[in-house]
Amino acid sequence: MWQMTINFKHMKVLIFYTKEFAYTPSQKNLDNAPDPGEPKTFNDCLLACIQIEASDEEKGLRSREKKLANHLKWAARKNNTNHIVLHSFAHLSDSKASVEFTHELFNDAQTRLENADYKVAQTPFGYFLDLKIDAPGFSLARIWAEL
Fold first, then answer.
1. What is the overall mean pLDDT for the chain?
2. What are the strands, taking DSSP E only, across 73-141?
3. Is the pLDDT reported for residue 46 higher than 90?
């Protein structure tokens, strides 16, 4: 008997609650990436490492942005913070959405979160970064999800 298996890949999100998160732009990896600005440091925040999959484009921007924002709000409440940093982390899977879709999804998720009174930042898009992560060890300080 022949059986077909369909393996849909979905957006991946790895969240760290951090006492302190800092980055310094290191190496440009997208030719048209804008200037990354100065290094930044954030305290008492969620660091959301996000991989947008190619199949997410088929589901549509609004659907994916809402799902991501809702998950991040839940994680922020569980960690008693209203600070969230979005970090494009295209290393959680071999499937990648287009740069344009990913960037637009990040911007729309940031707007949705800010409209819900969260303080949101994004790491520079199109750059490898030197990272400093001070993450305490308790249950909900690390959350993995496939959305």
1. 86
2. 83-88, 119-122, 127-134
3. yes
Domain range summary for the chain, segments of one domain joined by +: 12-132
Residues 6+ apart with CB under 8 A from 140: 17, 75, 78, 79
C-alpha torsion angle, residues 93, 136, 106, 42 (rounded to 10): -140
How far apart CA 13 and CA 10 sit, in angstroms, is 10
Q: What dotted CATH number matches 12-132?
A: 3.50.80.10
**Cβ pair 37, 24 in contact under 8 A:** no
pLDDT above 60: residue 5: no
> Biggest alpha carbon distance in the chain?
60
How far CA 14 is from CA of 2, 9, 37, 51, 105, in Å, comes to: 36, 15, 25, 9, 16
Residue 127, phi then psi, degrees to nearest 5:
-135, 145
